[in-house]
What we know:
Blueprint: H1 2-6, H2 9-20, H3 23-36, H4 38-42, H5 50-59, H6 61-69, H7 79-108, E1 123-128, H8 134-143, E2 147-150, E3 154-159, H9 161-186, E4 189-196, E5 200-202, E6 210-213, E7 226-236, E8 247-257, E9 262-267, E10 273-275, E11 278-294, E12 300-305, E13 309-310, E14 317-323, E15 330-338, E16 341-343, E17 349-351, E18 360-368, E19 388-392, E20 401-403, E21 408-411, E22 416-433, H10 437-456, E23 460-467, E24 470-477, H11 484-496
Antiparallel strand pairs: 1-24, 2-3, 3-23, 4-6, 4-22, 5-7, 7-8, 8-9, 10-11, 11-12, 11-22, 13-14, 14-15, 15-18, 16-17, 18-19, 18-20, 21-22, 23-24
Helix pairs in contact: 3-7, 5-6, 7-9, 8-11, 9-10
Amino acid sequence: xxxxxxxxxxxxxxxxxxxxxxxxxxxxxxxxxxxxxxxxxxxxxxxxxxxxxxxxxxxxxxxxxxxxxxxxxxxxxxxxxxxxxxxxxxxxxxxxxxxxxxxxxxxxxxxxxxxxxxxxxxxxxxxxxxxxxxxxxxxxxxxxxxxxxxxxxxxxxxxxxxxxxxxxxxxxxxxxxxxxxxxxxxxxxxxxxxxxxxxxxxxxxxxxxxxxxxxxxxxxxxxxxxxxxxxxxxxxxxxxxxxxxxxxxxxxxxxxxxxxxxxxxxxxxxxxxxxxxxxxxxxxxxxxxxxxxxxxxxxxxxxxxxxxxxxxxxxxxxxxxxxxxxxxxxxxxxxxxxxxxxxxxxxxxxxxxxxxxxxxxxxxxxxxxxxxxxxxxxxxxxxxxxxxxxxxxxxxxxxxxxxxxxxxxxxxxxxxxxxxxxxxxxxxxxxxxxxxxxxxxxxxxxxxxxxxxxxxxxxxxxxxxxxxxxxxxxxxxxxxxxxxxxxxxxxxxxxxxx
Length: 498
């Protein structure tokens, strides 16, 4: 009977609860949570960089599918990250609450009785007594912040309970921080929008390229405002030869209209714009060549700026143009933009500088079915060439189309004309709202102060006993304490008046 009860569900439940609510487990889960967050900085996240995720699927489709099955593109909302988060919360609560009761009882309790054999203490000193010195010992220990208990022939004192107080405040701050993270994430939202110079963004759901609301956030809570990207500037290092041409600052100049005021502001990396009900962060940038495409019958099949995604540090960029209304056949173009083009020995081009000093646009042109009528969602930054015929390109019957700003070229086979009318920049903006941000900072600061305070306080017990013409001094610390000997020497001098 005893054997069966030993391995009963109740037994294992209690054993698991004891393990989960131990401080060792809480520290392990805290470390595990930090490790689990690392993939979120290594791989693009759908909530913050959906375009990066799409690009990852285009470049490495099989590996991206594996990562997606492991939820590595949604780390912070994944099942395994949430499980660690919840276990850590339960562990901290189950660990802190019993310790709080024990600590409160200890604060109300009197100092312990004086041990019989003080000479066994790690710090011990004896001297000849000079009259009754216990009253003086009580006074000195009180002045040093000890809690004192006077007995018949001794004084028992202790201090350092604030060490455990700081420790508990630290753990309560962690619990509150986890609550702030959870509730903040629930009421938060994050939306992304690529904005070309001159374009305006209106804060409604239809204007976002991607939108990720928290489970407790609703669309009607979006506060109205509009924002126009007036200009985007990149500042390059032109003084340091070792860093020549590297960007040192990105500046998005925007006009914000909240319905009451109209203001002009700059958005920089790590310097977001405060908009009504959200902050606007600058997360990326690139070029948007302005292109006009005429089809085979002379109609404008496409016109406007095209967002090109940067492929390297010199801003070699890739863009896709789709003209489903072109006649007589649909036109698809895969284009490369080189801000400062240089021709290589192979005949290919490369950009040797990220600023548009000698911009060049090269295009591979396709005719056929773009697949946009099949009802299947398509990536705007990729072109499916399965049902398309290459009419101009390095491997095609005609060379690629090459254009500089202001030039126009005829497409082979009477398919139409295309012109490179101008060059604009775009900014990738992240519009985010998280009401828990301030509380996270507050609780993190309290936790830091509490743990530093806890580590600086020493838990000590001191006894002074006077017997038959001699007086004994002894001290004991919780943990290592190299200052115990010095403490009782100072106490002896102060008590005896040396």
